[in-house]
Amino acid sequence: MGDTINVKTIKQKLGFIGGGNIAKAVCEGMIYKGLIQYSQIYVSGPRLESLEHWKNKGAHITTSNGTIVNETDVIFLTVKPHILPEAIAGLFKTYTPSKAANKLFISVIAGITLEALESILCDLEGSRIIRTMPNTPLLVGQGCTVYCPGQQATEGDITLVKTIFEVAGICQLVPESMINAVCALAGSGPAYIYLVIEALSDGGVKMGIPRAMATKFAAQTVLGSAKMVLDTGKHTGVLRDETASPGGTTIAAIHALERGGVRAAFMDAIEAAVARCSELEHKK
């Protein structure tokens, strides 16, 4: 299958084992760009009522993970790490071997290695694995995704993964040894930035700006600053210096941030997230 994929539009049926936020983000990016229709999407979850969002969009829903593997060509593993054993057990209870052969599995699960995934799925004939780490800004076309192919993944499989994720942001190949760090930086990163936006908004409110206005200004400032980094290619230190005038307000604010240990706090956050990913890897 992998070498015959038409990447202009995705003709295959795509399955999601797990219908949560990251599954929605991956799917919405493809839908928005016209790569696929909801009629090609199959989603499983433990309760049908939790999948109403998908049903209302026109996707097929089921409580059977085996049905997802039987009926689709490409299967996204989008459950939480601690749910994966139960999800796989359910898959093997309900799948049909003749229908489940030669499928591509795309994992978005933190802390589960390619070796572990290949071991878990080895009884599915011809199964191929690509491990990915996307983030939720895929929903708005500004995602950051990395991927690492398993031993059996084909060039066509890799092309498909890049097609799916590049329509809604950037997608880059990395060695698997780097994925935990990317998970900590980009996968969890949006949560850090939401905290930054909220803190900036709080500061604006404290100084008299209405909450809705303060949040809007804070979010636009973060968006614009990120675009400056990406579009200009300048070092962040250079961009900061271009904003901070001698004896001005910005350098006074930066001094306050440095006293508060903001750099160390973010570095500690990344380190803590990587440590948690490593813990998950050791919980088979």
Topology at a glance:
Blueprint: E1 14-17, H1 21-32, E2 41-44, H2 52-57, E3 60-62, H3 65-71, E4 74-77, H4 84-94, E5 104-107, H5 114-120, E6 128-133, E7 143-149, H6 155-166, E8 169-173, H7 179-187, H8 189-206, H9 211-232, H10 236-243, H11 249-259, H12 262-281
Parallel strand pairs: 1-2, 1-4, 2-3, 4-5, 5-6, 7-8
Antiparallel strand pairs: 6-7
Helix pairs in contact: 3-4, 7-12, 8-9
Structure characterization notes:
Strands 3-2-1-4-5-6-7-8 form an 8-stranded mixed sheet, with helices on both faces. The two termini are 30 Å apart. α4 links the parallel β4 and β5. The chain has 12 helices and 8 strands. It has helices at 21-32, 52-57, 65-71, 84-94, 114-120, 155-166, 179-187, 189-206, 211-232, 236-243, 249-259, 262-281, and strands at residues 14-17, 41-44, 60-62, 74-77, 104-107, 128-133, 143-149, 169-173. With 284 residues, the chain is of the alpha/beta class. It folds into 2 domains: 2-176, NAD(P)-binding Rossmann-like Domain (Rossmann fold); 189-281, Orthogonal Bundle (ProC C-terminal domain-like fold), CATH 1.10.3730.10. The longest helix is centred in the last third of the chain and has 22 residues, at 211-232. Helix content is 50%, strand content 13%.
